[in-house]
Q: What sequence folds into this?
């Protein structure tokens, strides 16, 4: 009884935080839309949904997300095989490098792809600037890493012998893949595809930078409607549609993931040397690596060239305030970003640790298990709700006492911590769930109290994943743009916001400075993630 | 007529030789057992035959045709794993029918064949179960049915029964032998368990450290191990040099190896060779003793049923020659080299 009470009160802390800082703002935003003049009026929502522009935006979001997800899976599967089942020199370096796009700030990704395909860029001859293809390239760029990680980790632990048994029964390699390997990978592929679809459908920075005024997704449309047009009912209607779609997607995914036998036999299969029949997979991997490396290279080169000559002018401009355009210099913005990221990291880490601890405890009763499942889903909510909605919700919900936080320096870190929370929880839960409960029982039987048990069993295992999660939260916070763009104080902008402001103003120097700032931001994020990868936490970055 | 033929087959992993110049052959319709301690390379040998490990030297042929370059799925050799390796996401019926569906057999044909095979392995009515709901023995039966369904030219068995408990192992070994004989299947069995090998195989090859040290009909290998190590591996407890062996058997002989049941001890010192009890330990089916036989030394023995001996007691020791293995003269090892 006391145990249940203790667990319940422990769970109450993150629930309260998420309720106040997530459910309340998002609810306020929706309330604004569905009760426009203080009375319930769903007709307004339906009216918005009948607008041709809304339909166009919805359709654009659905098809770009679908195509980008398909491409990411098609490119990611062979790469996952090559990078996790084959053995060749440089494998570890490539695997590490492929984790970087996943956490690269979306604004930076957008800018890098734009630099790659702009008329003066290396792929300018393809004339892709301002086309949906550019957006697809951007979406695939930072999501293919998710597929490679998630599927790769599953593939790595896949027992080789069922496939050998099938081959011995006369199955060709293709038949083995279809009847044995693919079914075993299905949960991982479905997870990866659904998360990628979610990321694509709620992508903000990439679409904003690459779509220009012609192409808009649901997420950028919400931004446009709230920030520029002040059409709140329409924005709320779109948010509502987005949320319902996300819930529906998660339900469908839950069904698809269900397999006849969920138990997974994990083994450490030794990777093999590449054979001639691995050539197609190797070719796709090289293509994928090119897709990931080219925009980054284009960005780095672009930031160093002016009028056809090499220069550091853009980097020197980082210390200034872009001829008064910005209220602060780029270096100041980087400082602000780092300070905010530190706050967001400790917040999401302490929240995530409590959540992960609660949802991995052994529960005996059926009701307890159900409560745990609901909690688990509750904390994944920020994954599916538009960051723009969250940011705008903060503005309208947290502006009255006792929750007047508009001027508080903690507002931005809180929002970013919530955005990072699902990632933190997903990094910690598998590790905590993997601890055999008998270890704790053994410690207890040797005379260790609950706290001592926690220290000697749980902490011993969880400190590395905890550091990894901290790195992820830090990187996510550094790159967060959707929510931050609403609530950041004008005098203290973060680096992504500054980059976007620079992009919004004409002039080669502004554009170049934006590129230089992007390189700096990318380098900092990549540095953090490389340290995370050194920790060698199993399954980092997989879903 | 010889079907499978291995000539000088070697397999190496990063330079470490696991299988070293093995020559073997299996005749049509026969079962060859490769018996060896764990780590001797026997599983690697089996995987090489299946085409799952590349050879570093030598040749594997079927009916005279070299199998080099023939991938696993075209060899027609079904491999049955130690733990079955059933496809967990498929029902029992779909597991068993897997190979035939790949071959393009019609749905009705596959169902009929699956029913027959499930009957053969004693699992009628299990068609719609999932592998995880089966016991270890049932899983192995399904794995056997699945391998047989492929109508393999050769069945490769990798320790098919060693994951099971002792009682079940005995029963399933007898079933396996019956099924292989009835279906006339040619099979290659590798195992570390001599009981499994004796119950299933017609011929035995003893493997040690990557090499075949002895090959022959099962009974012949049992009665005449090639050397002391082989004798000890085949369940003998002591190897005696010719001098001691001659005293014990009362006639001139080469070295011999004794199974634990080779010496029977009774309370009458005049019945057989005289000796003194060192230790006495009752077990459920017989009592086990160590007896210092006069002029021979300490030997393991069993006591007559229902008799309790005291250490220091004078006793008589009789030799049961059916439990004595005769080694070639070159295999000399000092008495008491038991592990």
A:
């Amino acid at each position: 009884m006391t145990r249940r009470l203790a667990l319940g009160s422990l769970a109450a802390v993150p629930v309260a935080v998420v309720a106040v800082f997530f459910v309340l703002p998002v609810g306020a935003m929706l309330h604004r839309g569905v009760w426009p003049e203080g009375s319930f009026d769903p007709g307004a929502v339906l009216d918005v949904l009948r607008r041709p522009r809304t339909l166009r935006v919805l359709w654009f979001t659905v098809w770009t997300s679908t195509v980008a997800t398909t491409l990411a899976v098609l490119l990611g599967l062979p790469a996952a095989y090559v990078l996790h089942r084959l053995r060749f020199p440089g494998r570890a370096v490539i695997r590490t490098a492929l984790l970087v796009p996943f956490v690269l700030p979306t604004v930076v990704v957008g800018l890098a792809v734009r630099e790659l395909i702009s008329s003066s860029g290396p792929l300018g001859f393809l004339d892709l600037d301002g086309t949906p293809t550019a957006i697809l390239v951007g979406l695939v760029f930072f999501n293919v890493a998710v597929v490679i990680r998630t599927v790769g980790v599953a593939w790595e632990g896949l027992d080789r012998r069922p496939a050998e048994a099938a081959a011995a029964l006369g199955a060709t390699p293709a038949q083995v893949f279809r009847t044995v390997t693919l079914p075993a990978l299905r949960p991982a592929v479905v997870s990866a595809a659904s998360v990628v679809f979610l990321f694509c459908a709620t992508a903000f920075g990439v679409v904003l930078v690459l779509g220009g005024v012609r192409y808009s997704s649901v997420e950028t449309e919400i931004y446009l409607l709230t920030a520029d047009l002040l059409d709140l009912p329409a924005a709320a209607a779109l948010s509502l549609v987005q949320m319902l779609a996300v819930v529906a997607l998660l339900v469908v995914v839950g069904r698809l993931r269900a397999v006849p036998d969920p138990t997974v036999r994990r083994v450490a299969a030794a990777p093999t040397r590449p054979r001639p029949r691995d050539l197609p997979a190797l070719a796709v991997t090289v293509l994928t690596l090119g897709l990931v490396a080219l925009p980054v290279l284009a960005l780095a080169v672009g930031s160093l060239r002016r009028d056809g000559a090499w220069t550091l002018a853009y980097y020197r401009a980082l210390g200034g305030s872009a001829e008064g355009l910005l209220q602060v210099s780029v270096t100041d913005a980087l400082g602000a970003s780092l300070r905010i990221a530190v706050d967001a990291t400790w917040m999401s880490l302490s929240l995530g640790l409590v959540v992960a601890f609660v949802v991995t405890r052994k529960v005996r009763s059926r009701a307890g298990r159900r409560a745990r499942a609901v909690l688990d889903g509750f904390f994944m909510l920020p994954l599916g709700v538009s960051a723009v909605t969250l940011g705008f919700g903060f503005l309208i919900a947290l502006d009255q006492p006792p929750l007047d936080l508009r001027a508080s320096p903690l507002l931005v870190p809180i929002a970013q911590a919530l955005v990072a929370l699902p990632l933190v929880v997903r990094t910690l839960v598998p590790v905590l769930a993997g601890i055999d409960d008998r270890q704790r029982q053994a410690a207890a039987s040797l005379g260790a109290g609950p706290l001592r048990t926690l220290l000697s069993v749980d902490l011993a295992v969880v400190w590395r994943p905890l550091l990894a999660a901290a790195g992820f939260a830090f990187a996510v916070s550094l790159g967060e743009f959707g929510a931050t763009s609403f609530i950041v104080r004008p005098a203290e902008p973060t680096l992504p916001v500054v980059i976007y402001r620079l992009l919004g103003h004409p002039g080669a120097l502004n554009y170049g400075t934006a590129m230089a700032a992007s390189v700096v931001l990318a380098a900092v994020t990549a540095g953090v993630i490389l340290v995370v990868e050194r920790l060698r936490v199993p399954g980092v970055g997989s879903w | 007529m010889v079907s499978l033929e291995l000539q000088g087959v070697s397999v190496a992993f990063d330079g470490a030789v696991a299988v070293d110049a093995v020559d073997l052959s299996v005749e049509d319709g026969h079962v060859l057992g490769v018996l060896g301690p764990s780590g001797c390379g026997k599983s690697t040998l089996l995987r090489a035959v299946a085409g799952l490990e590349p050879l570093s030297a030598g040749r594997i042929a079927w009916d005279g045709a070299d199998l080099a370059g023939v991938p696993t799925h075209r060899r027609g050799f079904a491999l049955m794993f130690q733990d079955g390796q059933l496809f967990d996401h498929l029902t029992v019926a779909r597991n068993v029918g897997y190979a035939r569906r790949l071959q393009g057999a019609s749905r009705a044909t596959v169902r009929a064949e699956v029913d027959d095979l499930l009957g053969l392995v004693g699992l009628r009515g299990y068609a719609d179960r999932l592998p995880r709901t089966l016991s270890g023995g049932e899983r192995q039966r399904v794995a056997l049915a699945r391998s047989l369904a492929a109508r393999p030219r050769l069945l490769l068995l990798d320790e098919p029964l060693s994951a099971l408990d002792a009682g079940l192992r005995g029963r399933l070994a007898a079933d396996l032998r019956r099924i292989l004989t009835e279906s006339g299947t040619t099979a290659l069995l590798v195992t570390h368990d001599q009981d499994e090998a004796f119950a299933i195989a017609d011929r035995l090859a003893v493997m040690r450290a990557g090499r075949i040290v002895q090959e022959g009909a099962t009974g012949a290998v049992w009665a005449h191990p090639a050397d002391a190590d082989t004798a000890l591996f085949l369940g003998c407890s002591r190897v005696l040099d010719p001098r001691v062996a001659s005293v014990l058997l009362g006639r001139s002989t080469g070295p011999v190896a004794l199974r634990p049941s080779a010496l029977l001890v009774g309370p009458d010192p005049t019945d057989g060779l005289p000796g003194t009890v060192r230790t006495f330990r009752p077990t459920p089916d017989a009592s086990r003793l160590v007896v210092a036989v006069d002029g021979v030394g300490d030997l393991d023995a069993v006591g007559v049923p229902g008799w309790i001996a005291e250490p220091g007691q004078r006793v008589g020791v009789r030799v049961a020659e059916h439990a004595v293995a005769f080694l070639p003269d070159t295999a000399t090892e000092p008495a008491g080299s038991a592990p």
